[in-house]
Amino acid sequence: MDAAMRELSYAQAIQEAMAIAMDMDERVFLMGEDIGVYGGAFQVTGDLVERYGTDRVIDTPISELGGAGVAVGAAVTGMRPIFEFQFSDFATLGMEQIVNQAAKMRFMLGGEVSVPVVMRFPAGSGTGAAAQHSQSLEAWLGHVPGLKVIQPATPHDAKGMLLAAVADPDPVMIFEHKLLYKMKGHVPEGHYIVPIGKAEIRREGRDLTIVATSIMVQKALDAAAALEGEGIDIEVVDLRTIRPLDRQTVIDSVKKTSRLLCVYEGVKTLGIGAEVSALVAESEAFDYLDAPIVRLGGAETPIPYNPDLEKATVPQVPDIIAAARDLVKGVR
Amino acid sequence: MPTEVILPKVDMDMATGQISRWFAEEGAKVKKGDVLFEIETDKAAMEIDAPASGTLRDVTGKERVDIPVGAPVAWIYADDEVYEAGTTQNGAPISPLVGEMSAKPTKGGAVPPASQSVAPPSALPFLRSSGAAATEGGPGISPTRGEIGQSPSGGRATPLARRLAREAGLAIADVKGSGPHGRVVRADIEAAIAAKGAGAPEQPTADTAPQTPVEAPAAAPKPMSDDQVLKLFAEGSYELVPHDNMRKTIARRLVEAKSTIPHFYLTLDCELDVLLALRTQLNAAAPMKKTDKGEAPAYKLSVNDMVIKAMAMALMAVPDANASWTESAMVKHKHADVGVAVSIPGGLITPIIRHADEKTLSVISNEMKDLAGRARSRKLKPEEYQGGTTAVSNLGMFGVKDFAAVINPPHATILAVGAGEERAVVKNGEIKIATVMSVTLSTDHRAVDGALGAELLGAFKRMIENPMGMLV
Amino acid sequence: MAGASKAVVDSRANLPFVYRQYSPEQLREVLHKMYLIRRFEEGAEECYTRGLIHGTMHLSIGQEASAMGICMPLAEDDQITSTHRGHGHCIAKGAEVGRMFAEFFGKTTGYCKGRGGSMHIADVAKGNLGANGIVAGGIPIAVGAALSSRMMKTGKVVVSFFGDGANNEGAFHEALNMAAIWKLPVVFVCENNGYGMSTSTARSTAVKNIAERAAAYSMPGVIVNGNIFSEVAEASFKAIERARAGEGPTLIESKTYRHRGHSKSDRNRYRTKEEIEDWMANRDPITLFENELRDFGFIDDQGIEAIRDAVAREIADGIEFAKASPAPEIATLENYVYTEHA
């Protein structure tokens, strides 16, 4: 196979990034529940323990709060831990260390320390795991100054952004959608960085901007492809980082298309779409809007178990097609 | 050295505190650790212990009075210390910390010295914010459902359509909207421009004058800091009197009024001779009434009472000037509620004669006496000084000939009244002597334009110079 | 003179641990620092009651022997995590009182440049990773620092200070367990002053002694009288030796008492005046240590007076330094949230 077009899954891309980071910097190590011989709940760490040993791929007890705190303490004192929460839902158990310690320590100490910890959160619905193993809590952490929060949407970005996160002096929270783990895509070999804080235009268009995150990027692209036949030309912006937000890319895109649709899996109310909508309304792009701003987000409910209900909880491609068509045709 | 007893900070965010109770009185023997007094905070009462043993002296911290944190409230004299009445209260700073407290704040200091701490809003009710007053004073100004979106620039339109229309010199109201609910969208503006011909967009009309978004106004120059002001005077050459709430409210409201209302001024002379003669007649005709202090005339009209009435009737005659400005609509009042500036110790307040247009001169006169009396003792209720549709400020009694007053929002006008004085006037080519009073009307140009203001002032002059009109 | 010092040395064999372990100069310096902690907190309290310091603060007056005893055997590059009642730990680990006062006054010369205040006082250069406003918040961080020490082979030992209230937090149990399974060089120090805010340990904690918790994590649990410097220092010395030797963590319960309320808004409704006075009059750690030093001939009244005078000067100078220091510019509000890029 042509090396230039080498394909890896999203999970393999993350694993490769962690291996490269550990090869490049002996301060980098992994911590998490069942990330050793088990290979991680989603096989993201895989066989890394065999290659790097139990000193650098550390199975923790089921102690999310303590584990997160140990990672923070190690980061403050010179190490570069990558801590895996088994499910993003378990962030709730580690919230104290994430929000009160990791995010604030540099600030509280007047810049005397930094906290170069990376935390990984397998997130999202679609696996039938029901209400406590399917949430998208990225907006919670996106609300905390001191944290950086990223949501890579492709295998290429998953690797490049993880390597950026490891190199970053501040705490970086990575939300990985579980349904993306098997997604395949081109992943360059070796070390490269996809910068944090920079959105990416995945598809150019002139009639409507869809700002999407994580798995919704692919769904938005599918919707855009379907609407092409109707003569609707959609631009898809992959936000990639939700803190710090790349405001300018969003504003420039809306100034071009005059219409904005936000699509994200987290609960709609007080979610990422609210922030993106507000930043556009506050910006010079306001005077370019030719239609109301529309958000498609998660329903106002915990994630249900029943597969049909579960699907109905989060935006699907037909929902995006309908909303986009209505906006461009002037029905809304 | 005697030990200072201070009002200690016992709670976060505490700038002042009240002593709810003393447990020891002047001259009492106290032991270190004895409960001296109790402080009431928002949350709880805290008992404060004596910091030393000895005799309690100079208890200056009164119960139930706001005291700044850190201020001395008493002194404790050890048994071997001689007490001379009053020495400690006025004495030099006792410790370096006290020195810091009474000194000016260090530059940009994050911790304000206690002596500068601001008392929490006290019970004294004064003018509320103009926003609140405007709502109370202006019934029916909120847009009804059907009006939502009917902004001054036309019907429903997207922000983009509005911008394009602005740039093309088109009025949104003239464009038919093709979007949902008749919303004007980009395509509609583009069609309208095309329909006008392929030529250049037409020149902007006067009505759409501000074409480009108005640049944010340059930041107002900052007033001098306290330090900068004080530096201009020799130390010891002045005394600092902290502002009370009324002074702060006056300062805030006047800055707000003068910096947000475009003031416009009109001056006119009124002849008073007829009015003065009528006043003498009316007062002479006042029936006697039994009061607590014996018999007294039932009323005693002042010139000012007649000015109030004249202003009210002028507003009725020129109803367009009886208005208040709000961003979304003009509030047109149905009655003339005339505020009258009353000078009181430490400031001024403007009680309102409601429906002055409907009241007789004697009613206005007696009401004014009552309001002014209670204003001086600070006993007015908020509803007695909030709102109003205009105001009168009279400095004639000080011999002021003419001045311009600052509008008191939500009013759109205020009448500044000078002294009535004998002046030479020219009538039909002859110089005659007349009693003349100069008045200056300040108007809020957003609500009352020059011509309208002149019309109002003219009506006022007619009323003053033909005062019999006020009797019917 | 030579005879006198020989007498001191000879008699040391029967004296408590610290008198055998440390030089008279070192021990006089301990007294000096205990006074420095006491007077620092009294000075801070004075400034607070005069409204010169805002927020609140938690004073450790009465717990000075605990802070000094634990820190005595630590090397300068060993690390600690501290608590909301952390002024004593900070001074014991080597901080300057001037920069601490400056922090309390919110000044740029403060240890946290005015961003942290009393509750987040730190001195990273001296190994103090910071006081923590979250009960038990610093315990897992100390374990992480100990993990760094082992992975980076620096030989550092980490002490985690916390109060009795923390022993019922999940973080305490999770952190002790991890430190034990990984045999990390960390010493857990519970300063049990009897009350978590207002709730006594008897009402809050199922075990009689918090040191008993150690059994659940297979580490030594040691109880010491936290008001006797020598006892605390001896326990700390042994635990630090053990940690440095790679034998794992120790839990020390230092039983002590805070003379002041929990914070500045405490009305002391949950304990009696008699109880407080008894501790102040009969078990004051500074008085106890001072008497010992004098009785054993390590210091005389003149020497004690000299220490007190020196401390008074340091405190006055510290307050002056804080007052004279500049306040942060509002424009710098968002500094230190993220690492600034050059």
Structure in a nutshell:
Chain A: InterPro entries: THDP-binding (IPR029061), Transketo_C/PFOR_II (IPR009014), Transketolase-like_Pyr-bd (IPR005475), Transketolase_C (IPR033248). The complex is a heterotrimer of chains A (332), B (472) and C (342). With 332 residues, chain A is of the alpha/beta class.
Structure description:
- The complex is a heterotrimer of chains A (332), B (472) and C (342).
- Chain A contains twelve helices and 14 strands.
- With 332 residues, chain A is α/β, with parallel strands linked by helices.
- In chain A, the strands form three sheets. In chain A, strands 3-2-4-5-7-6-12 form a seven-stranded mixed β-sheet, with helices on both faces.
- In chain A, helix 10 links the parallel strand 13 and strand 14.
- The longest helix of chain A has 15 residues.
- Helices cover 26% and strands 22% of the residues of chain B.
- Chain B contains twelve helices and 20 strands.
- In chain B, the strands form six sheets. In chain B, strands 9-20-19-18-14-17 form a six-stranded mixed β-sheet. A four-stranded antiparallel β-sheet of chain B has the order 1-8-6-3, with no helix packed on it.
- In chain B, strand 10 and strand 11 form a beta hairpin.
- About 18% of the residues of chain B have low confidence.
- Chain C is of the alpha/beta class and 342 residues long.
- In chain C, the strands form two sheets. Chain C has a five-stranded parallel β-sheet, with helices on both faces. In chain C, strands 4-5 form a two-stranded antiparallel ribbon.
- The longest helix of chain C is centred in the first third of the chain and has 26 residues.
- Chain C: It catalyses: N(6)-[(R)-lipoyl]-L-lysyl-[protein] + pyruvate + H(+) = N(6)-[(R)-S(8)-acetyldihydrolipoyl]-L-lysyl-[protein] + CO2.
- Chain C: InterPro entries: DH_E1, PDH_E1_Alpha_Subunit, THDP-binding.
- Chain C: Its cofactor is thiamine diphosphate.
- Chain C: This is Thiamine pyrophosphate-dependent dehydrogenase E1 component subunit alpha.
